[in-house]
């Protein structure tokens, strides 16, 4: 038996004895609202400008992704994982692939692991740049949005060169990645990483010593370490509260244990701490990506995808020439089976712990695929952070919790 | 007869100049912000997109006018007028240049009117401007608009005192409420009021951003929170009126900053410059402050509205009081005292 704990916190109260207390006004923020990052609806009860009750209402972007997996089969669901947290599609791919590999007992070759690490870190930078851009545009600093997006655009160009797509790349397969990173792309990435830390500092200069930004975020949306754990927050939102929990360190995957990087943690757990944590994570991601690039250089020509023909498609040239490979291809495309059982595997995405829980009955039809989306948990924390504060703080809090509705609603 | 003609000519020229500048400002805002953000900005209509304000105006005229259900139609229509009108009225006393010439024994000045209480008049009419936002927010029958209107009223009480005290310091040093005399009092080496009243200048600059509802004090509209605030429900020319009002107020405040602190139409190191040189000097100085408006808007984050009240009452107001007190002491007992 697992112990069940009920987590309670005091909800915002209207002080009836306060002479300034007036009629409560109910405002619908969203689903069409410039600051809700998609289609989140917040039912806010306002006493003056103070939010006394906040109720997030999710589901406006629900597309039934988990159910879709059951009818599509394991392989075809890869395309749909991109559309969950669409600002970091490759991380979703990898998280899903890792669950499948865990159930299948498939080993990913070293070069494949390194490419995955590189892709995940680039995706983390992209996602954090979106966070910086959108959260500061909510606070009124419009320029920073563009400065962040100029950087992000370069990463899109790089991914375009590597995968042929800007968004929704779907370039990860069971057992590795679809294609190797060639020298041209590696050079582009290297050039990007060389100039990136200076650009992060530039963004930081505009925000960190800015009194207005400081006033808007310091002490706003504070969540203690205990509360954050009870809310099961993860990722930068948890680390902002001072809990040093990073799956890349605590439960390493893809060989993260062999990379040098630091995990930044905050002290107070307010919006400003979460901002600082993400800024530092971008610098650290840059560091990891550089190490990964170095390893790719040393390990040129290695396998980037496993050769297990139960799960991994044979190269096209072999399919055309060899009968056996044709059969393999046919079996994988039409009827790829995973062993009976269940598996859960999680990665540290830019939003927190992104996990895929899959159940297979041994046939080619999935029984269940559940996505542990960090965004949904983050949305859950909104009332706790926002109640009792001013309406203006809402945009700072939403921005700093950093969720993507595509992942929240699935 | 011909005196009236000259007076009419000056009136048309002044209004044309200010409203033309305001229209150009909407264009400049988009161009400058684009340059700051690696974008092109409008470049389709006319050379360099210069006719964009005109195209926008035409578009506004043809848009459907919507008055929301449950709105108070009269106040709803009155609000945009109340926003645009005060800013336009304030143009009347701004000295664009000095004496242009003499006609039938009367001096022709570079301003529409030259009342003895010029600065008092400006403060009085611009103070009315905020009612447009309050009434517009209230009459729209929309929750966001109401919040915007409330914020506008809260904002007004927190900056206006400091604004007036900052102006008062200038008035005290000059000894006149007449804007032409305030300008004339700033001649000579380091004669500009910004050198003798630096604190008052900073206070005035900050308050002028609040007065014009500009970033970082634009809570009344505040797009990410209130989706446009008091003008959420406005469309067509009524919305355009709010825009014209806002931009005209900006031009007026920039003109006032120049007049009060930067020697108005005086040309540095050229005491007897011709009147058209004064006009150019005035335009150049004003343009700088207009550019500053845009620059600040696209760089800084926005305050929270209670933080403006904090700033207004606990920082700006005490500073303004100290400033006026010290100014008074210097005037009474300082080197120039009689």
Architecture blueprint of SSEs:
The complex is a heterodimer of chains A (410) and B (338).
Chain A: E1 25-29, E2 41-47, E3 50-57, H1 65-72, H2 78-82, H3 89-104, H4 110-138, H5 142-163, E4 172-173, E5 176-177, H6 183-207, H7 211-217, H8 225-230, H9 236-239, H10 247-250, H11 271-298, H12 316-321, H13 323-335, E6 341-348, E7 353-360, E8 366-372, H14 374-380, H15 382-386, H16 391-401, H17 405-409
Antiparallel strand pairs in A: 1-2, 2-3, 4-5, 6-7, 7-8
Helix pairs in contact in A: 3-4, 4-5, 4-11, 4-16, 5-6, 6-11, 11-16
Chain B: H1 2-36, H2 52-62, H3 73-90, E1 97-103, E2 106-110, H4 118-139, H5 143-174, H6 179-184, H7 193-196, H8 198-211, H9 223-226, H10 236-261, H11 275-297, H12 305-333
Antiparallel strand pairs in B: 1-2
Helix pairs in contact in B: 1-10, 1-11, 2-10, 3-4, 3-10, 4-5, 5-8, 5-12, 8-10, 10-11
